[in-house]
């Protein structure tokens, strides 16, 4: 019997990589996409061309994480062995602008799935897409499964609710429900307003003479950036482990936004010279033209200054470790971007 997976958030970065992974593992994959006025399946459209995709092993359904009826009906209809909850309003800065919606989707959405599981089939395994944003104002360094949380945004607070409600349902109803606490992970499929993609896309366009300037916010925030392809493998391993537990997934290496910019510039052979401080800091190309400037609007009301994880537990028990480093990530993102054709 083939295993059946149901993915909420199938149209996102991770949804795309996870779908491919599960199809290669011979799962039947049901994906939940939400209704939008323009087509939102660009990250998964190519999957239908893959040789391992047969007619009925990848099926999309309309649904929404803020709509409990659709969630209940989809779980009932698709009868999954595993559910992956990747659906979220996943942009931290945007969560300050739409906090109520973010809470509805990112916090209560998880409760809706969990409650449907215990009503329909408590044997379903559940993966919750938790985040290193829950560590926020970090309480110890590096962060592991025992580090106390201190979220700094409506997004982080919502994810923390999801973390604890997943543990609460696991303990109360003995279901196989797990939290992955994933640090930042990127890829060519990363959303365009996250900082890595924004930097790569703009700098490739600057290199090709299609853009003049890139505006950024806090250059000194530090992140532990991995590759999404590695991280979806961890999600799957988490649900195959003998016990339902919570897991930190990260690289253990940390770079600032400015270091990321410099690495992309180096790959593109752009010679950057940084001058000035604070809001007046600028990066010049060949000493003359400023190509990067700072804009106050890209700073957040409360920042997560530094994140660096410790994935020893996953290394030891899941036998998981990242296979791709930051240089590979940048090469992958830049090469993808350079191959894009733009209408402008
Ligand atoms: P993403 O690219 O933003 O994808 C989010 C997915 O959720 C998209 O498919 C989106 O649909 C869907 N979605 C949003 N609101 C929804 C709603 N109301 N109902 C149904 N679906 C909805 O995010 P990602 O980078 O793949 O991340 C996947 C998950 O991991 C998210 O929960 C994120 O918060 C979490 N996470 C990500 C990272 C990271 O660094 N990438 C780290 C830790 C945790 P549309 O395509 O229609 O927008
Ligand atoms: N987006 C963005 N745009 N961020 C900027 C910019 C800019 O112009 N300039 C500086 N930054 C800084 C942000 O202030 C933040 O400190 C850092 O770059 C990373 O920002 P994002 O790429 O937006 O990611 P994030 O760390 O806030 O959140 C991502 O990772 C989380 C895991 O830690 C998202 O994928 C979340 O969904 C995920 O949970």
Write the topology of this structure.
Blueprint lengths: L3 E5 L4 H12 L3 E6 L24 E5 L5 H11 L3 E4 L6 H6 L1 H22 L4 E7 L22 H20 L3 E6 L2 E2 L8 H13 L6 E3 L5 E2 L2 E2 H13 L5 E4 L5 E2 H11 L4 E4 L6 E4 L3 E6 L17 H7 L7 H13 L6
This protein binds NADP nicotinamide-adenine-dinucleotide phosphate (NAP) and guanosine-5'-diphosphate-alpha-D-mannose.
Structural notes for this entry:
With 344 residues, this protein is α/β, with parallel strands linked by helices. The protein has 2 domains: 4-188 and 226-252 and 306-323, 3-Layer(aba) Sandwich (Rossmann fold), CATH 3.40.50; 195-219 and 256-303 and 336-343, UDP-galactose 4-epimerase, domain 1 (Alpha-Beta Complex), CATH 3.90.25. It is 37% helix and 18% strand. The protein contains 10 helices and 15 strands. The strands form 4 sheets. The protein has a 7-stranded parallel sheet with strand order 3-2-1-4-5-6-11, sandwiched between helices. A 4-stranded mixed sheet has the order 8-15-14-13, with helices on one face. The protein has a two-stranded parallel sheet with strand order 7-10. β13 and β14 form a beta hairpin. NADP nicotinamide-adenine-dinucleotide phosphate (NAP) binds at residues 8-9, 11-15, 34, 36, 40, 64-66, 86-90, 105, 129, 131, 182, 184-185, 191.
């Amino acid at each position: 019997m083939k295993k059946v997976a149901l993915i909420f958030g199938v149209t996102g970065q991770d949804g795309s990589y996870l779908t491919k992974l599960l199809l290669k593992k011979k799962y039947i994959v049901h994906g939940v996409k939400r209704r939008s006025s323009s087509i939102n399946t660009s990250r998964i459209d190519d999957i239908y061309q893959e040789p391992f995709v047969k007619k009925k092993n990848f099926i999309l359904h309309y649904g929404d994480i803020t709509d409990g009826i659709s969630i209940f009906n989809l779980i009932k209809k698709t009868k999954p062995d595993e559910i992956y909850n990747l659906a979220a309003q996943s942009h931290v800065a945007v969560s300050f602008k739409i906090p109520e919606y973010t809470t509805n989707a990112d916090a209560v959405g998880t409760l809706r799935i969990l409650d449907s599981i215990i009503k329909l089939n408590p044997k379903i395994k559940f993966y919750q897409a938790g985040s290193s944003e829950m560590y926020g104002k970090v309480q110890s360094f590096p962060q592991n499964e025992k580090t106390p949380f201190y979220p700094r945004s409506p997004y982080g607070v919502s994810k923390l609710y999801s973390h604890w409600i997943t543990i609460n349902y696991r303990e109360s109803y003995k279901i196989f429900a797990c939290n992955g606490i994933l640090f930042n992970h990127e890829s060519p499929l990363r959303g365009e307003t996250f900082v890595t993609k924004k930097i790569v896309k703009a700098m490739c366009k600057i290199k090709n003479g299609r853009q003049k300037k890139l505006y950024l916010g806090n250059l000194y925030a530090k992140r532990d950036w991995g590759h999404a392809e590695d991280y979806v493998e961890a999600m799957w391993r988490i649900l195959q482990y003998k016990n339902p537990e919570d897991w930190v997934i990260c690289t253990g290496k940390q770079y600032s936004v400015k270091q990321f910019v410099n690495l992309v510039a180096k790959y593109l052979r752009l010679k950057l010279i940084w001058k000035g401080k604070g809001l007046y800091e600028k990066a010049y190309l060949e000493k003359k033209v400023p190509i990067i400037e700072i804009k106050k609007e890209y700073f957040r009301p409360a920042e997560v200054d530094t994140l660096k994880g410790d994935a020893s537990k996953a290394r030891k028990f899941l036998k998981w470790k990242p296979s791709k480093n930051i240089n590979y990530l940048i090469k992958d993102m830049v090469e993808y971007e350079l191959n894009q054709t733009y209408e402008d």
